[in-house]
């Protein structure tokens, strides 16, 4: 990887393309901050700069490439309109800027797309067409409409204009934090990392470019490394859950990117939670993938000055709540304890007394008499509780066992 056997000049996007894109779009996007995170730096052993692309109007960097493409269309193409297949951030970024520029936009989405995403995209002025159960079906229909209605298809990643627009993220990061020596960048189709790597290779000093994919969707990793790991599963990082990377982007990644790391679902969840707790910012799973790589592979980045792109913040609030609660459970602050009791007066009271003595808060209590393998006079009580930390919880469990109770912890996923 990054052998540079192909010269940078022969690649479809150059540093001049990225600079020109920035001149076009900079007055119509948010100049998001690049800020050092002292707490994350202490946790990881690296100097960590975060680029808050979740603060764009549509909460994702995708606006950049979409706008750069729209601004290069002819007047005739603008009048006819644009079309895209997307159920995510590309749809909203393209719809928003097309509406702002007076360009008709059609977005084809799978019929399974959550209604909130449909409504948000329509709210930006786009016509939404629901077609097929999968993204592939929606994509095929979009290409059919492109041909039949004379529309311009705007690809979410495999287009030099889109890649150049996404690369403006790196230009801004290096302007704000010129000491960055490593980019950690999520990879879905590869548009963002292709643009950022173009900027990195044009710098006057070496800047390492590391890509990140979810373990469940290692599509670019497979393409570059010749592996055949499956791409499937219910990943938190749905924004980078791409089964087939682009052909243009794959060539650029092979030429310009140093390495691709894979991250687990657990680390993705931890990264989303950490960003909310430490930085008070909301990132979707894909947006937190760079931090997840930093947390999962700290030895890889120790001592480096890293730039991490928080590329999007569009996460369902119910999913976010679930991620946060699961993280609290893993840290020992929330727990469900399963306690075997005797079915007689005072049993639950005596257990509650131990909770009180240990100053652990009881949230909910579940009695189970029927659906259990215990004898008829046996009783299971599941008690959800809140402790200060893992050590506090362990002291409670020890006290319960010292009191003669059988206790087990119902583990979070």
Automatic annotation (TrEMBL):
Keywords: Lyase, Pyridoxal phosphate. It catalyses: L-serine = pyruvate + NH4(+). Its cofactor is pyridoxal 5'-phosphate. Its EC number is 4.3.1.19. GO terms for molecular function: L-serine ammonia-lyase activity; pyridoxal phosphate binding; threonine deaminase activity. It is an enzyme of class 4 (lyase). Residues 336-413 form the ACT domain. The keyword Lyase applies. Signal peptide: none annotated. GO terms for biological process: isoleucine biosynthetic process; L-serine catabolic process; L-threonine catabolic process. Belongs to the serine/threonine dehydratase family. This is Threonine ammonia-lyase. It comes from Sphingomonas lycopersici.
């Amino acid at each position: 990887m990054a052998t540079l056997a192909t010269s940078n000049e022969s690649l479809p996007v150059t540093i001049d393309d990225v600079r020109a894109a920035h001149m076009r779009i900079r007055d119509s996007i948010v100049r998001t901050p690049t800020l050092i995170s002292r707490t994350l730096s202490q946790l990881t052993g690296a100097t960590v700069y975060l680029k808050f692309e979740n603060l764009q109007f549509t909460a994702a960097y995708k606006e950049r490439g979409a706008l750069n493409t729209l601004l290069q269309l002819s007047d005739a193409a603008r009048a006819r309109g644009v079309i895209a297949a997307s159920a995510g951030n590309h749809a909203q970024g393209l719809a928003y800027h097309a509406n702002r520029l007076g360009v008709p936009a059609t977005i084809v989405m799978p019929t399974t797309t959550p209604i909130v995403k449909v409504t948000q995209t329509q709210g930006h002025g786009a016509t939404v067409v629901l077609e097929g159960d999968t993204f592939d079906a929606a994509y095929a229909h979009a290409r059919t409409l492109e041909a039949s209605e004379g529309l311009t298809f705007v690809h979410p990643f495999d287009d030099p204009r889109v890649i150049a627009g996404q690369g403006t993220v790196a230009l801004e990061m290096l302007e704000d934090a010129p000491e960055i020596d490593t980019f950690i960048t999520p990879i879905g189709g590869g548009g963002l990392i292709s643009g950022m790597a173009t900027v990195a290779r044009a710098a006057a000093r070496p800047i390492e470019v590391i890509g990140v994919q979810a373990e469940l969707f290692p599509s670019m990793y497979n393409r570059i490394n010749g592996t055949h790991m499956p791409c499937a599963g219910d990943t938190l990082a749905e924004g980078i859950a791409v089964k087939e990377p682009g052909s243009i982007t794959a060539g650029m990644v092979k030429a310009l990117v140093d390495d691709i790391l894979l991250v687990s679902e657990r680390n993705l969840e931890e990264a989303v939670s950490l960003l909310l707790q430490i930085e008070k910012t909301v990132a979707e799973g894909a947006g937190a993938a760079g931090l997840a790589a930093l947390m999962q592979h700290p030895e890889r980045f120790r001592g480096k000055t890293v730039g991490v792109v928080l590329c999007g913040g569009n996460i369902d609030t119910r999913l976010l709540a679930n991620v946060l609660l699961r993280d609290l459970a893993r840290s020992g602050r929330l727990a469900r304890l399963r306690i075997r009791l005797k079915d007689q007066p005072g049993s639950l009271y005596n257990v509650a007394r131990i909770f009180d003595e240990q100053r652990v808060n009881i949230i909910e209590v579940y009695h189970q008499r029927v659906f259990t393998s215990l004898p008829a006079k046996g009783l299971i009580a599941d008690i959800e509780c809140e402790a200060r930390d893992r050590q506090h919880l362990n002291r409670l469990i020890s006290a319960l066992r010292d009191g003669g109770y059988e206790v087990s912890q119902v583990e979070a996923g």
